[in-house]
Amino acid sequence: MPASPTVWFTKNISPTLHRVREAASRYPTLASHTSADAGYLGAAQEAFLEPVGIGPEAYPDYALEVVRRRGVGAVVGGRHVAHLAAHRADFEALGCRLIVASREPGTFERCEDKARFYADFSGRLPMPETRVAHTWEELLAHAGELEARHGSACFKPARGIYGHGFRILTREDSLERFFSGDRLQLSHAAAELLLKDQALPPLLVMETLPGQEYSVDAVAHSGALLAVVVRRKVGGLGNVQQSVSLPELESYAALLARELQMDGLFNVQFKEDRDGQPRLLEVNARASGGLAISAALSGLKLGLIELEAHLEGRTGRQAFVPGRRVTDAREVLEVGRVTEVAG
């Protein structure tokens, strides 16, 4: 019986801990990062440090050298994934599977640039009414139009993750809101002080969506969905989330998987408008920070589904019974020992 292929998780972010744990139950695992303090390193059978300062163009050559030297059978890419995807044939020539969110290198840029993404999928997916602003004057004009139509407006950078830079515009300042730690609302006066006469990045000015928020974690292979988990963010004590059945959102995820040639884990965010209709916020061409929550809600080992599709040819659609509620809690991890060599 042939040995299981070694799976290497390159430098990545928080969901990698959950993915490495799932992979280690089935395959030999390597994990790497530029910092020995990365929490997921201890979950792999072996961990090592990547060199600091390798640029995007040079990173595929570094990864290919590690594959050759260590006999890696699959690379789960975490950084510079568009450049890795452009070298897929080079990995395959070494007998190594490259596992990143999409088979198309251009998908990562499409998802990163939300202004372009909105334009590409306008009319095919339900989105909030949106304008692009490059100056304070444009932002102010767009916000006024949207406030008149929808009652409230907000803005965020066209590029960014974790909702950084997102603010809801208000007409008045509030000391109570300020002292309560509210970092989401920003008055027009405060925004003017910050943004007027500044060189601004492209900003999306949008109608504010006040309804329920949904996160869709999905696994695809060659553009076809293998599993999808829709979770509703209930909130309250402990950040409770619940798995729900929303075929409409699943169909949108299937469309995105097909159009963007998704080939691994990815995430889609939706929020309801004033009428309770879900609107697409963004697509993340990567595993989400809530991946472990979706796995707990569904009972599906989403990271293993991804690996088995690539390494064992298992591509059947997997389902689950929705309705489970979970909360997340902090976990204390021992920092793992790493090999003090770059690969």
Automatic annotation (TrEMBL):
<protein>
    <submittedName>
        <fullName>ATP-grasp domain-containing protein</fullName>
    </submittedName>
</protein>
<dbReference type="InterPro" id="IPR011761">
    <property type="entry name" value="ATP-grasp"/>
</dbReference>
<dbReference type="InterPro" id="IPR052032">
    <property type="entry name" value="ATP-dep_AA_Ligase"/>
</dbReference>
<dbReference type="InterPro" id="IPR005479">
    <property type="entry name" value="CPAse_ATP-bd"/>
</dbReference>
<keyword id="KW-0067">ATP-binding</keyword>
<dbReference type="Pfam" id="PF15632">
    <property type="entry name" value="ATPgrasp_Ter"/>
</dbReference>
<dbReference type="GO" id="GO:0016874">
    <property type="term" value="F:ligase activity"/>
</dbReference>
<dbReference type="InterPro" id="IPR011226">
    <property type="entry name" value="ATP-grasp_fam"/>
</dbReference>
<dbReference type="GO" id="GO:0005524">
    <property type="term" value="F:ATP binding"/>
</dbReference>
<dbReference type="GO" id="GO:0046872">
    <property type="term" value="F:metal ion binding"/>
</dbReference>
<keyword id="KW-0547">Nucleotide-binding</keyword>
<keyword id="KW-0436">Ligase</keyword>
<feature type="domain" description="ATP-grasp">
    <location>
        <begin position="117"/>
        <end position="311"/>
    </location>
</feature>
